[in-house]
Amino acid sequence: MKKLNGQVAIITGATSGMGKAIAQVFIKEGASLIISGRSSKRGIKLEKELRQINNNVLFVSGDISQSEQNKILVDAALSNFGKLNILSLNAGILGLGALTDLSLEKWHTTIDTNLSSIYYLCKYAIPEILKTGKGNIIINASIAAFKSFPNHPAYCASKAGAVALMKQIAIDYAPNIRANAICPGPVDTPLLTDSAQAFEEPEQAIDNARKKTLLKRLGEPQDIARLALFLASDDSSWITGTTINIDGGILIS
Q1: What's the distance, CA 182 to chain centroid?
Q2: Structural domain boundaries, residue 187
Q3: What is the rounded CA–CA span in Å between residue 12 and residue 117?
Q4: DSSP secondary-structure letter at 187?
Q5: Is 47 inside any structural domain?
Q6: In this predicted structure, what is the pLDDT of residue 41?
Q7: Is 136 helix (H, G, I), strand (E, B) or coil?
Q8: Number of domains in the chain
Q9: Helix segments in the chain, DSSP class H
Q10: DSSP label at 30?
Q11: Which residues are catalytic?
Q12: In this predicted model, what pLDDT tens digit does every residue of 12-22 receive, in sequence order?
């Protein structure tokens, strides 16, 4: 039995990295998907790939930092699949720069993409999820919610806010909706490479992060996808309001 049979999910940030891996796992487990990202080229390519497994997938391009784009995603789920059960929120940008050097535009863009977009999508999606009786919201946050990094003020603030917002959703919409946050450490994605640019020696910074994990390796997107599947499925039916660090042990090393 596939773990997500009959479920309809919206996955943001699906065109690369962890969001893409989550889409690949969810489709194999029987979910129908609305996948979202800003790159139409990557999104259309992924849509074609996923349709080799299950035809019930649609790519919707757009910038989820804009409120209306999130409504479009919910409307697409309803018009194509008739309902909505799961949100997997993965879109994120770094907004690098020391606080006093960071432009107002970069601050607002980072907060809007990483945090406000969660509010927007949940605002439109939760009423529809409630109509199905129960559902799941899985927020891809970061250990940056708990650990600071040089020149990441907007990113760290947005991820801490995402964790706090997750807890509020879990409280306000229980018992029908479960909400949880995944907090990855250093995962081998383009975002990690970009994040390392905040350090004087970027390649060394990535290698140092690997060495600091207790398991002596970077995470892989599939590691995060397997955790997302667990949280989206009935395997985690008594888990809500929880942050799960998936970081190879780096926070305690």
Answers
A1: 8
A2: 8-252
A3: 10
A4: B
A5: yes
A6: 97
A7: strand
A8: 1
A9: 17-28, 40-51, 67-81, 104-111, 117-131, 153-173, 190-195, 202-212, 221-232
A10: T
A11: 155
A12: 999 999 999 99
Task: Give pTM, 2 decimals.
Answer: 0.97
30 contacts 1 by C-beta, under 8 angstroms: no
What's the CATH code of the domain at 220? 3.40.50.720
The answer to whether residue 216 is domain-embedded is yes
Phi first, then psi: give them for residue 120, nearest 5 degrees: -60, -50
Q: How far apart are CA 224 and CA 227, in angstroms?
A: 5
Residue 231 within a domain: yes
pLDDT score at 57: 98
Closest CA to 161 of 113, 225, 224: 113
CA distance 24 to 9: 12
| Angstrom distance (rounded) from CA 208 to CA 189 | 16
228 neighbors 22 (Cβ within 8 angstroms): yes
2, part of any domain: no
> Which tokens go with 26?
């969810």
Structure confidence by residue, pLDDT tens digits, 83-133: 999 999 999 999 999 999 999 999 999 999 999 999 999 999 999 999 999
SS3 53: coil
224: number of CA atoms within 13 Å, CB side?
32
